[in-house]
From TrEMBL:
The encoding gene: splB
One GO MF term attached to the UniProt entry: lyase activity
Keyword Lyase set for record: yes
Protein name per UniProt: Spore photoproduct lyase
Keywords recorded for this protein, A-Z: Lyase
CDD domains associated with the record: Radical_SAM
Pfam families linked: SPL
Length: 371
């Protein structure tokens, strides 16, 4: 038990997290004989999955004829595929402002958030594809560390070195009980296997942190929890409830991990100041008294693109999520892409509120950015 736990008041044991168990597991031919696949299949069997198929090829099967969009979505979301990460997942990509570089332990996520960031950015059926060639996925850590970066110079991140984001295309904690990839990455970086000067970071809406607590993390992985107001949480199907995420945040902070709040997607719901104020107060109460707390915060407002809206409306035809272009402002990327964000005045109100209230209500929190 970490020393700092000894002098803290006793707390009730957290309820066991609800873990995602896929109905179907597919293993591509190229992934079948890799050592990490054996570990994944051991976990899949222990989880009680009956339908495990080794495919004769590397292509995942397409949807059966006549299947509706809803049925295809439900089947894909209940499927995990063990695959070799494609070249696009192995090619280093800078991803400011979140981190210097992206690493993909997997692509896809078992949760059902009606605003999901992956809609429109990942093509094909929303199967959770976990990467079996873990050594290749993690290899860029050694080659890119110290090569210069996009965020290292940020004074608020001093000491983190070159940062690698693990949650661009998945929620790595939501599938960790089936893969073990996250723990392997944390321990490898924590013990300097890829050299010094690298840090990992990921964001999660899950709470199964127990297997991470005793890892030799060396303070080199920042675990951020995606948190939101209760009015937005109702759009986050299949994830851990907010109190469970906040409890998990407390537990990893007590285990000495640097931690973070990813407050996203922020929505100006009725009474948003009170709702987000309550959330920040709950976080402050959970983290009170944790010694040497290292806490960052990132605030990201809701946005959507024409393609993400089209995909999400197919997946969640009855959603109450507001995606109305007529009440939004258009933001164009330098490559001509279009995003719909909140109007300027709303963005300014949200930004100034979070810039004041995050450090004001949560002692020690360093706001990295608000966008
Ligand atoms: Fe998408 Fe993240 Fe929700 Fe998973 S947890 S469904 S990646 S928004």
């Amino acid at each position: 038990m970490p020393a700092q736990l000894l002098d803290r008041p006793e707390r009730r044991l957290p309820a066991a997290p609800r873990l995602w168990i896929p109905k179907h597991v597919l293993v591509t031919r190229a992934a079948a004989d890799l050592p990490h696949t054996a570990e994944i299949l051991r976990r899949v069997e222990a989880a009680g999955v009956d339908d495990v198929r080794i495919l004769p090829a590397d292509r995942l099967p397409t949807a059966p004829k006549g299947e509706s969009e809803r049925e295809a979505y439900a089947r894909a979301k209940a499927t995990m595929a063990v695959v070799v990460a494609p070249p696009s997942a192995l090619k280093p990509q800078p991803i400011p402002p979140s981190a210097d570089w992206r690493l993909d332990l997997a692509r896809g996520c078992p949760a059902h958030c009606q605003y999901c960031y992956l809609a429109g950015s990942l093509s094909g059926a929303p199967i959770t594809r976990v990467h079996a060639n873990l050594d290749e996925v993690l290899a860029p850590i050694a080659s890119l560390t110290g090569t210069g970066s996009v965020t290292t110079g940020d004074a608020l991140r001093g000491g983190e070195g070159t940062t690698f984001e693990l949650s661009c295309y998945t929620d790595p904690l939501g599938i960790e009980h089936l893969t073990g990839s996250l723990a392997a990455a944390i321990a490898q970086v924590g013990t300097g296997r890829h050299g010094d000067g690298a840090s990992l970071r990921f964001t999660t809406k899950f709470d199964a942190v127990e297997p991470l607590l005793a890892l030799p993390h060396g303070g080199r992985t920042r675990i951020r929890f995606s948190l939101n107001a209760a009015e937005v949480e109702r759009f986050e199907g299949g994830t851990a409830r907010m109190p469970a995420r906040i409890e998990a945040l407390r537990r990893v902070a007590e285990a000495g991990y640097p931690v973070g709040l990813t407050i996203a997607p922020v929505m100006p719901v009725d009474g948003w100041q009170e709702s987000y104020g309550r959330l920040l107060d709950d976080v402050a109460a959970a983290l009170a008294g944790i010694p040497a707390l290292d806490l960052t915060a990132e605030v990201i407002t809701h946005r959507f693109t024409p393609s993400s809206k089209q995909v999400l409306e197919g997946w969640y035809p009855r959603t109450k999520l507001e995606m109305d272009e007529s009440v939004r402002s258009v933001k164009r990327s330098k490559f001509g892409g279009v995003k719909y964000v909140y109007p300027k005045g709303t963005m300014a109100d949200l930004r100034s509120w979070f810039e004041r209230e995050v450090p004001g209500r949560v002692p020690g929190a360093r706001l990295l950015y608000s966008t």
